[in-house]
Amino acid sequence: MVTTPRTFAFATAAAVLLAASACTPQVQPTPMPTASACTKDSLSTETAGKLTIATDEPARQPWFVDDKPDNGKGFESAVAYAVAEQLGYTRDDVTWTRVPRDSAVAPGAKNFDFGIDQVSMTEERKQAVDFSAPYYLVRQSVVALRSSKIAGSATLADLRDARLGAQADTAGHQAVTELVRPKTEPRVYDSAKDARKALRDGRIDGLVVDLPTAFELTSTEIDDAVIVGQLPQVGSPAAFGLLLEKDSPIAGCVSAAVGRLASDGALKRLEEQWLVQEAGTRELG
């Protein structure tokens, strides 16, 4: 198999990010594209000298703020600008465009250089598009009604006496059984709809779902629901990557930029700022 700069960059950045989340024990450095190959003047972008970034509409918090991707606020907006800076682009060099997620992940030519919109990197999607190295490993979290006895919980121990629920065959179910280990057998639901209804009806004290779903639940679906907190990483988490056109000539450089942000701790700092502090989601340990 021929190893390209893009595959080198992907492997390195992915390993760095996974190790930072305690998913791998050690990282061995591997080569990345040269700096001269990844400058603004060298990159073949949609518009010469500019970087066009896509996201869906509306762009929701805390990934973005006020549905304004260009303000640099929110986790994904901040990540996008950090990647742009790594590639030599200023804020004025960045143009945002709105592209529905279904269109972004579909096969075919793209009118953007990369997209960012909580897109999980799956083998099926990799047949149609390219991805950068992962910029975020999805965490599991606990959602409860404000009136729940666990709404103010700060540790895993605080959850042990709770009636928790999760959808069957999900990372949320794995997190309940392997991390929380409640005294009462967790309630397991066949569908996300049934699990959410159980929470809404008060039949469980808390529901364990991935963090993006938790934000969706508390912001648009259940008015009196809150995110109790994030759980430690478990299993093989889903990963979000920057989405590029298949065989994009800039994929290696974009992956290298994400890798540098992972290795110097910038991604972790942005996650802490926007997904913990600004969003008010404590980490349960």
Low-pLDDT segments: 1-16, 18-31
Any idea what the radius of gyration is? 20 Å
Based on Cα principal axes, name the global outline.
Answer: elongated
Range of strand content: 15-25%
Q: What is the mean predicted local confidence, pLDDT?
A: 89
Q: Which CATH class of the largest domain?
A: Alpha Beta
Q: Counting H and I runs of at least 4 residues, what is the number of helices?
A: 9
Following the backbone from N to C, one meets helices and strands in this order, namely HEHEHEHEEEHEHEHEEHH
The main sheet orders its strands as: 7-6-8-5-9
Main sheet properties: 5 strands, mixed
The residue fraction in helices comes out at 25-40%
Signal peptide: 1-22
Domain Solute-binding protein family 3/N-terminal: 50-278
Pfam families: SBP_bac_3
Protein name: Amino acid ABC transporter substrate-binding protein
What is the strand and helix layout of this fold?
Blueprint: H1 5-20, E1 51-55, H2 75-86, E2 94-98, H3 101-105, E3 114-115, H4 123-126, E4 129-137, E5 140-145, E6 164-167, H5 171-180, E7 187-189, H6 192-200, E8 206-210, H7 211-221, E9 225-230, E10 239-245, H8 251-263, H9 266-277
Parallel strand pairs: 1-2, 1-3, 6-7, 6-8
Antiparallel strand pairs: 4-10, 5-8, 5-9
Structure description:
Mean pLDDT is 89; it is low at 1-16 and 18-31. The protein is elongated and about 60 Å long. It is built from nine helices and ten strands. It has 285 residues and is α/β, with parallel strands linked by helices. Strand 1, helix 2 (75-86) and strand 2 (94-98) form a beta-alpha-beta unit. The longest helix has 16 residues, at 5-20. The chain starts with a helix and ends in an 8-residue tail after the last helix. The protein has two domains: 5-137 and 238-277, D-Maltodextrin-Binding Protein, domain 2; 140-230, Periplasmic binding protein-like II (D-Maltodextrin-Binding Protein, domain 2, 3-Layer(aba) Sandwich), CATH 3.40.190. The strands form three sheets. The chain has a five-stranded mixed β-sheet. Helices cover 32% and strands 18% of the residues. Residues 1-22 form the signal peptide. This is Amino acid ABC transporter substrate-binding protein. InterPro entries: Solute-binding_3/MltF_N. Residues 50-278 form the Solute-binding protein family 3/N-terminal domain. Pfam families: SBP_bac_3.
